[in-house]
Amino acid sequence: MTRRIKNGTFGRLSLAALGLVLASSVAPGALAQTMEAALSRAYSGNPTLNAQRASLRATNENVPQALSGYRPRVTASADIGASITDANVPGGRTSTTRLAPRGGGVQIDQNIFDGGKTRNSVGQAESQVLGARATLRNTEQNVLLDAATSYMNVLRDTAILTLNRNNVEVLEEQLRQTRDRFQVGEVTRTDVAQAEARLSQSQSQAILAESNLKTSIARYRQNVGAEPKQLAPGRPVEHLLPKSLPAALDTALTGHPAIVASLHGVDAAELQVKVTEADLYPVLGVRGLVQQRYDSTQFGDNRASASVVGTLTIPIYEGGQVYSRTRQAKETAGQRRIEVDTQRDTVRAAVVSAWGSLEAAKAQIVAAQAQVQAAETALAGVREEAKVGQRTTLDVLNAQQELVSARSTLVTAQRDRVVASYSVLSAIGRLSATTLKLRTEVYDERRHYEQVKGLLWGTETPSGR
């Protein structure tokens, strides 16, 4: 390291090598953690994603609730009491009757026709489940993108911090040499002051880079659920992307989970109109009743009765409430249709923006690599010229700063390329654990639905809670 500083060069530190610097500052001796491992951890343990999964399971319960409209409703009732009756009878006699009236019964109500309310409620509940599944997939995309971004931010900020710390060491050596030359009269006090000023600036940049790294580590902990440990280099996922922007747009507009969720929202809203209108239609049902009574009119009597009755309820006028709710549901359905168009425009803009960022990052990497190479050559030349008095100390300091800036630009561009590739994959709706082939158990969104759809009773969830 000392010889390299005296020669005035950093050495050719790639993003891969710089990314591993985190090992010495976070977890010495630990095995390198890959991007795939970080994404797997985020997929299985991120609170936002787990909360959305719980929301889907809650939405699944709408289906058995709607299906209950097809099933009979059974109620049981019982009563017990006491009665005392004093009666005056002809002839001046009185009689007192003491009874303990009691009994019980079972009533069964079965829906026959309810204007299509139950049928449409079931359809609405199923649309809500499908929409919730699409929302879950969209949340999964956002969580994985945030985790990938956090991963690359830690790598980038670690590399930039390393560059700045290395630059501080070089400038400290530069200042020492400048002071030695000042002692023998080769340079002036101005050269020393310039070297001191540039060193102070470099130290300030190193402090800022360290602060940025701490922030990125905190974000990583939030998104992934663990502290970063010796991160391995991240790689773009361009092999999973469409070959062109038009193809990416076609993929996004036909299958993006945000659009799919909006379309199911339209279906649910339109079915809500029919559910509300059903309150204006007649309701036909059958009621069965079985009763057992004791001591109803005299002590010791025992009466049993059973009946089956067809019921027909015809709404005539309910104050206009149902009409208003129907109009309201129609307006809501119209709103949901407009939101689909809004979501399509949002997805389209996201795809174009992410694709442009990816293309720009690729071009920037090429330009930054050329810039680094040119800056290294320029710095070496300026240093040689400074030795023979053809360049000033300020020229050397400026060339040194240009090299640091060029390398920082290259590191940032490499980070941007990886993040942009994940952003494009998210924008087209394909960023998922399955697509990335993460080594983790993939959440089965249908399993809970199948478990609860046909449940007739029980308050415990399938997980036993």
From TrEMBL:
Signal sequence residues: 1-32
Domain of life according to the entry: Bacteria
Recorded coiled-coil stretches: 161-212, 358-385
UniProt-annotated location(s): Cell outer membrane
Pfam families: OEP
Keywords on record: Cell outer membrane, Coiled coil, Membrane, Signal, Transmembrane, Transmembrane beta strand, Transport
SUPFAM superfamilies (alphabetical): Outer membrane efflux proteins (OEP) (SSF56954)
InterPro entries per the UniProt record, alphabetical: OMP_efflux, T1SS_OMP_TolC, TolC-like
Family label: Belongs to the outer membrane factor (OMF) (TC 1.B.17) family.
Protein's name according to its UniProt entry: TolC family outer membrane protein
Taxonomic classification: Bacteria, Pseudomonadati, Pseudomonadota, Alphaproteobacteria, Hyphomicrobiales
